[in-house]
Fold this sequence. Notes:
Layout: E1 5-7, H1 15-19, E2 22-24, H2 29-40, H3 43-60, H4 63-78
Parallel strand pairs: 1-2
Amino acid sequence: MGVPLVITPDVHFPEVGLAGAGEVVALQPQAVAAALLRILSNADQRQRMSDAGRELVASRYTWPHLAEQSVKAYERLVGPIG
């Protein structure tokens, strides 16, 4: 959707924080609210996070990339395919 994320560690997607695509915060209303307010109050940060999120998805979570990763995993297990 092209927007920054606010997630908790329970989502198991630390790449969001590592890529700068949003914030990973404690599962507490105050922590979630504070992160949302930080992001909503800073247009430049919001845009950087949005851009980082798009880049993260484009570089790691497209079908071609996932297919390539799957083939590599199979090859590690059983040897070259084809």
